[in-house]
């Protein structure tokens, strides 16, 4: 193609300016999700079938110690007249035991054995009155009340009866007084008993010990 005369050299045809286009999106690989570590919290406290938290071992142990101290003092005070009589017998034996050995047995050993038997019987009576007649009304002895715990039936629909309290008494005190080392086994049983942390006397009476506010 030729230019007409008087025009300069031909100019190249300029292509149209390109329209602006946003850059194509470019995404890298997704980062890995964060890792969360969940530390397990403390297990929920064990509860009775009624949903009330159970008394732990130390609360029950302190309550038991309080009750034993109170009952031991009461039994000792009630035993003082018998102790006085026996010690008077000992003085009488010391006066003439060198000439006649017979009174040593009749005036010392027999009264002493009778005193021991009387203290055992007295202790059973005092424990019965305290642990059965006193406790079955509210489910609490003085020691349990001080530690804010209470004996309740395992079945929430029942109430604590004298029969339940009496079965607890038979296993805890009577068997504990007759069977060697039974008291230790009975008291420690709650440490491995699941799920209600019952002692052997709890199992005999179908009871549990729970925490209360008062």
Describe what you observe in this structure.
By secondary structure, the chain is mainly α. It contains 6 helices and 2 strands, in the order αααβαααβ. The chain has a two-stranded antiparallel sheet with strand order 1-2. Helix 2 runs antiparallel to helix 4 (162-178). It is rod-shaped and about 160 Å long. The protein starts with 56 loop residues before the first helix and ends with a strand.
Query: What share of the residues does DSSP label as strand, in percent?
Result: under 5%
Question: SS-based structural class?
Answer: mainly alpha
Number of structural domains: 1
Largest sheet: 2 strands, antiparallel
Number of strands: 2
| Poorly predicted ranges | none
Number of helices: 6
Mean pLDDT: 82
Indicate the percent of residues in helices: 40-55%
Shape: rod-shaped
Cα(first) to Cα(last) distance is 115 Å
Rg to the nearest angstrom?
43 Å
One letter per element, helices H and strands E, the order comes to HHHEHHHE
Which strands sit side by side, in order, in the main sheet?
A: 1-2
Summarize the structure.
It comes from Paractinoplanes globisporus. This protein has 214 residues and is mainly alpha-helical.
Secondary structure elements and their pairing?
Elements: H1 57-96, H2 102-138, H3 142-147, E1 149-153, H4 162-178, H5 182-188, H6 200-205, E2 207-211
Helix pairs in contact: 1-2, 2-4
Give the key terms.
mainly alpha, two-stranded antiparallel sheet, 6 helices, membrane, RDD, transmembrane, RDD family protein, cell membrane
